[in-house]
Protein: Ribosomal RNA-processing protein 1
Amino acid sequence: MSDLTTPQGPLLRALASSSTARRRAAMAQLHAYLSSSRQFTSIDLLKLWKALFYCLYMTPRPRNQQHLSQEISALSFAFAEADKKKSTKVKPVDRAENLALFIEAFWITIAREWEGIDKVRLDKFLFLIRRMVFITFETCKSTTASDVSEEDEYTFDSAQLARHIAILGATPLAPRDNKIPVGLRLHVLDVLVDELARADPEGKLEVETVLVPVERLKKESLTKTVRTRAAETLSDERIATLGQAGEVEQEAEAQAEAEDEEDDGGWGGFED
Structure:
């Protein structure tokens, strides 16, 4: 068994160390470890997130905390590299499953540790939560190389997106799970539309599907404050524009096809 997956593994201890140098060295090793060709378990990643939680907890100064939060959330992309590194001699790695378990383990960990976060340290974790909401959508994208003068085109993996939305609905946005702190639910609702818009600038997502967990919160939450905040999220004026880019593109294509058909039908050949 790997050192990382044992409760007292040296890498886990280094991540939670009070020594800045040890924490930085451990983070450098961690990306390589996660991008290796191996299948992780939920227990593996829960242990890892506990160490990452204390890694951020022990980090002083806002600038360093923000940078570390970005590094921690970017570990999500390490799982994508496993596909590129895997050998035909080893059992194929389910990258999407590893990633989903990593995201799920984060929400379980932050919900468990929420009540123990003091006010002085709360801001650093609020930023990490924002980053992980963004990662929920961003890691479902695949890009295709386009002309160098243009931005890369992207599409969303519908199956992976559905899995990630289900994780949101079952963890921070679970309407009736008393283990989820109200403050955590409220913060996720506060940043959801911001990060959705940032991950999908071209409006390619089906917003109704993404917002299903929020609709459930609005109807089923046991807390009035959460129901009210969910309603405010759903009434955000930006939601009306999200997802319209794809519709506009489809309408334009349909109109162009209709015009082509009209042109073809109206041509009667050369006159005598």
User: Anything to note?
Assistant: The chain has 13 helices and two strands. The chain has a mean pLDDT of 83. The radius of gyration is 23 Å.
